[in-house]
Design a protein that fits this description.
alpha+beta; GIY-YIG endonuclease; three-stranded antiparallel β-sheet; 3 helices; 3 strands; about 40% helix; GIY-YIG_endonuc; GIY-YIG nuclease family protein
Length: about 80
């Protein structure tokens, strides 16, 4: 399974991050430990939502969509 996850910074709630992983909990621990340069300055993070996909290509496409302009609007409206 592949998971598309959406994080929100706890100290900076206007900061969000969308990513793709096989293990959501381990990835959250990694982000909160500062191991990702894209998220290290706004830690700690919390999980807003995640979605499971059996098809890796569909997971990658959904992640790409959530990072797009229309996907950003979708995230604001639904999450």
């Amino acid at each position: 399974m592949k998971y598309v996850y959406h994080l929100q910074s706890i100290p900076h709630p206007d900061q969000h991050y969308v990513g793709l992983t096989r293990d959501v909990e381990a990835r959250l621990i990694s982000h909160n430990a500062g191991q990702s340069p894209h998220t290290s300055k706004h830690r700690p993070w919390r999980i807003v939502t995640y979605h499971a996909f059996a098809d890796e290509a569909k997971a990658a496409a959904f992640e790409k969509y959530l990072k797009s302009g229309s996907g950003l609007a979708f995230r604001h409206k639904h999450f």
